[in-house]
From TrEMBL:
Pfam families reported for this sequence: Metallophos, Metallophos_C, Pur_ac_phosph_N
Designated name of the protein: Purple acid phosphatase
Coiled coil: none
Stated family: Belongs to the metallophosphoesterase superfamily. Purple acid phosphatase family.
Enzyme Commission identifier(s): 3.1.3.2
Listed InterPro entries: Calcineurin-like_PHP (IPR004843), Metallo-depent_PP-like (IPR029052), MPP_PAP (IPR041792), PAPs-like (IPR039331), PAPs_C (IPR025733), PAPs_N (IPR015914), Purple_acid_Pase-like_N (IPR008963)
Record keywords, A-Z: Glycoprotein, Hydrolase, Signal
GO MF annotation list: acid phosphatase activity; metal ion binding
Chain ranges of the Purple acid phosphatase C-terminal domain: 353-416
Transmembrane segments: none
Length: 433
């Protein structure tokens, strides 16, 4: 039997829609803001852990990643009380060079756990007593809340977005590509990781790559995603993926299954990614997993003049498979604007198709994509060229509340909000799975 939002939630969403109508009445877009470079803390020495971020590994483990200038032990000490570290784990250390002009610091990582769900932990890296960090693990059941933001970069708009996110209650952050906008300038990777460390060290960040992560130079640096793979190790092994560029994970005790797909690695029918995706989806039991989400970088549906058609090849290769699996929502970046589509399949509105949302407006240095196609396609419900971030609150097995929060003169304003219904709960779609 289908369940519905509580009266309290319905009142809340009613208020949200009222805010939407007010917020979208008159909006004067602020001016662009300057690029940032975040230097190392002046008080830090060569053994000080920096650029700390965490990633979920399975249901009850966390990978801690950090960098030091000197060679130190790749240890993480952790516990449930500040200053009391009852557990310690030794991890591994690596580094990479990029051309002859850059060598990374020592990149350490260690997987800690098993951990209790929905619990706060304190930790330190490399036995460094001056820096204690804390994080909260996600819940092992519903409800669960994701922040979703793409194309972050490192500008003053980025800091505005991160500030708004820090004021929100959430369990995990999902990023569909284009993280640092280093674009070959490797110190910008260090700057970006310092910028996001306050958030990325306190909640798990699950990311996938965008075009700005490729970073190749013919002959000199022919291997794509070198820095990205070295710095942002995702749990691809846990989902039997052969590549860090595409993987999946489950959340909320298996109630949500999230596909992190690679727009810039082969997705053709004879590719590793295609075969992996087939096998991965075949293991999803929708009676136990009511929510199925996907993240990509280049959107499959886009009514902005920027990047028109760039996701079309991937759509033609994978859309039918995701539709057959009854994916509930697909989130993309790449286009520097916000756009929400209705439930779509094969370029038409389809009750059993996923909602498509472009959220590539985190704060990048390239600015906003302001020009939309006219007239607005019928499948496009809401679109606006503004910086911001999204929030997906999966309330129960049937309903999730999506809201897009616009950066409006340093104030987060809910500008778009709606309920998503799980396709697994739609009886007329079940016979088609």
């Amino acid at each position: 039997m289908a369940t519905y939002p509580s009266s309290r939630l319905l009142v809340a969403i009613g208020v949200t829609f009222a805010v939407v109508s007010i917020a979208t009445g008159t909006y004067y877009r602020p001016n662009p803001r300057k690029n940032l470079f975040v230097p190392q803390d002046e008080d830090a020495d060569d053994t000080t852990p920096q650029q700390v971020h965490i990633t979920m590994v399975g249901a009850d483990r966390v990978r801690v990643t950090w960098i030091t200038d000197d060679e130190v032990a790749a240890t993480v000490d952790y516990g449930t009380e500040s200053g009391v570290f009852s557990h310690s784990v030794l991890g591994s250390t690596s580094s990479y060079s990029f051309t002859v002009f850059y060598k990374s610091g020592n990149i350490h990582e260690a997987v800690i756990g098993p951990l209790n769900a929905n619990s706060v932990y304190y930790y330190r890296c490399s036995n460094h007593t001056a820096r204690e960090f804390t994080f909260k693990t996600p819940p092992n059941n519903l409800p669960i809340t994701f922040i979703i933001v793409g194309d972050l970069g490192q500008t003053e708009w980025t800091t505005s977005t991160l500030t708004h996110i820090s004021q929100s209650s959430y369990d995990m952050l999902l990023l569909p590509g284009d993280l640092s906008y280093a674009d070959l300038d490797q110190p910008l990777w260090d700057s970006f990781a310092r910028l996001v460390e306050p958030l990325a060290s306190s909640r798990p960040w699950m990311v996938t790559e965008g075009n700005h992560e490729e970073e190749t130079i013919p002959i000199v640096e022919p291997t794509p995603f070198k820095a990205y793979n070295a710095r942002w190790h995702m749990p691809f092994e846990d989902s039997a993926s052969p590549s860090n560029l595409f993987y999946s994970f489950t959340a909320a005790g298996g109630a949500a299954h999230v596909l992190m797909l690679g727009s810039y690695t082969d997705f053709s029918s004879d590719s590793e990614q295609y075969r992996w995706l087939q096998a991965n989806l075949a293991k999803v039991d929708r009676s136990k997993t009511p929510w199925l989400l996907a993240l990509i970088h280049a959107p499959w549906y886009n009514s902005n003049k920027a990047h028109q058609g760039e996701g079309e090849d991937m759509r033609q290769a994978l859309e039918e498979m995701l539709y057959a699996a009854r994916v509930d929502a697909i989130f993309a970046g790449h286009v520097h604007a916000y756009e929400r589509f209705t439930t779509v399949y094969n370029n038409r509105e389809d009750h059993c198709g996923p909602v498509h949302i472009t959220i590539g407006d985190g704060g990048n240095r390239e600015g906003l994509a302001r020009d939309f196609l006219d007239p607005q396609p019928s499948i496009s419900v809401f679109r606006e060229a503004s910086f911001g971030h999204g929030k997906l609150e999966i309330v129960n097995t049937t309903y999730a509340l999506w809201s897009w929060n616009r950066n409006d003169d340093d104030e987060a304003v809910v500008a778009d909000s709606f309920w998503i219904s799980s396709i697994a709960a739609k009886r007329d779609c079940q016979s088609k799975t």
